[in-house]
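Can anyone check this?
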Amino acid sequence: MRASIALRGWKGTIGRISQDLARRPDVDDSLSLLPLEAAFTSLSVPTSATPRVSVVIPVHGKIEYTLACLRSIANAPPTDPFEVIVVDDASPDNTATILAGISGMRVINNERNLGFVGSCNAGAAAALGEYLIFLNNDTQVTPGWSDALLRCFERHPRAGIAGSQLVYPDGRLQEAGAWVFADASAWNIGRFTSRKNPALRYARTVDYVSGASLAISRDLFDSLGGFDARFAPGYYEDTDLAFAARAAGRSVWYVPDSMVVHSEGISSVGLGDTGMKRYQAVNQTKFAEKWREALRKQPAPGTPLAVVDRARHRGTVLVVDTVMPDVSRDSGSLRLAGILKLLLADGWHVVFAPDDGHAEDTAIRELGALGVEVLVKPWVSGVPSWLAANHRDLHAAILCRHTVAAQYESLVRRHAPGAKLIFDTVDLHFLREGRAAERSGNRALARQARASRRQELRLIETADTTFVVSEYERDMLCRLMPGARVALLSNIHDIYGREAGFEGRRDLLFIGGYGHPPNADAMHWMADDILPALRQVVPDARIWVAGDVPDAERRAFSGAGLDMLGRVPDLAPLMNSVLASIAPLRFGAGVKGKVNMAMSHGLPVIGSTVAVEGMRLADGQEVLVANDAKSFATAYARLAADEALWNRLSDHALQNVRTHFSADAAMAVLRKAID
């Protein structure tokens, strides 16, 4: 039973009427709702004898809704072992008879009607799982719904309750969590708007989430005493549970990538004097009495919702890059994702804008699951319009790459002069382009490098702080621009560790997509020179290439002997089977993510001087350095014959990442630049 409570007062009344009259969105066929069944057909629900998750569904009649709910769970089951417990609350129809014919679930039959509160508590008492998910019987779940709820607890150790995005069958958003006001009234966030709006698709803490789809650990539920019986038969019990969790120091989270369709009737909104609805006003009074002191800290009724939302975070940090990050595509995306996570962990509202204004739904979903709001068309026309509307809350803007920073630097200064302006070079483009021009003799590229240099140096001069990724680049800028505020914010990596030792390892792994010019050059070098030299020393040695490569080049490289894998979602199996990672870069700039990534798995790296510069790596200690084809082949043979050397490089590589490329090191730099 969800609270379904409205904001009191004339402002709330007008707001609710506006919501009720809002234009319905177009029919959304992607929901793929199951039909309501008038007659029972065979149904089996998967189950486990040792569940991690217990799904508790209280029912009182409406067997056709219950069957559709159960079928949706069977079609989109939790990944973890689970059980389904249906509590039949003395249904007046043939529910008990039909439920008895369904295999795989447990049924509890109440002798008398206990209401939503009593039925949920009875189901929880019988549950075997570590986590409880309470689910209304008039819901239909979607793929990944339960997994997303449990991921919330993994991402946020202090999370106490996680709730789904609730959607009406017509596709409109029903609820994205809710705010509670000082008089115990509440507002369902986003009601009747589009569920696809990114402004409502990022995870956040809220005051409460609906009991229509609510997850909580069994231990916490028991310690809080379950749903408070004083709110029986229903209404405000979920709000009360959330306040109890918050009083215990736990947070309540709205989880947008857990989508559940809820067939809540909307025709009875405001009819509070008949049926179950009469308990809404009664229980609001009880709730206000129980939580009198806590409600003093809640916003006053009528407080603008934007003000309520802003009060829940320290301020807004805007991050702009050329396109949406994709951690499976490039190391820059991996670093950016790490920065976004650190900003979120430090209490900021993080807004990300791709400069091209576009994002795939999956990308919005992934960033939203972390807690990042995405600015994307058609919801926002662009960064300028967003700055004009939201500049008052802007604390800092991080503009990535000089092509982006040059567009928006003046806009940020004009709209939010008090905000910190941070230029994230990602890598110094003029350095990379200049090296490429020198190697190729391309005059056009040399002119481009000079133009990039002028633009990057101007931005560095005007920014409050400039981020670079390597000591080499920081030291160079300190010489060129002694007065500039330059900070080292390098790649950010988790420490995966070594899962397999030296024994049985063979071959080399190259990580990188062809779209990055230094990687394309490296692939040609490997195919033309390095692999032939390697096979003169070790005839059956192979070089595996993980990354996007166009079809024509892929066929050519395969014909030359490289093993082309394409994009690999999970690199761990390769990291734990090959002898070493190879990084034969002949030009470039910045810290190389492929080197960091291999080292975070304890995989030794054979790399060029360009590949390992600025990373505090010594030849023979953390890496093996090679700058011609014969040297790469010799280094491979040396490493394959010396287990002690392999172990030394592996151990030192892991320590290097811990010391210089950890989240703690990056957080210190971010705080100094932003606070």
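Reply from J.R.: I decoded it. The first strand starts at residue 53 and ends at 59.
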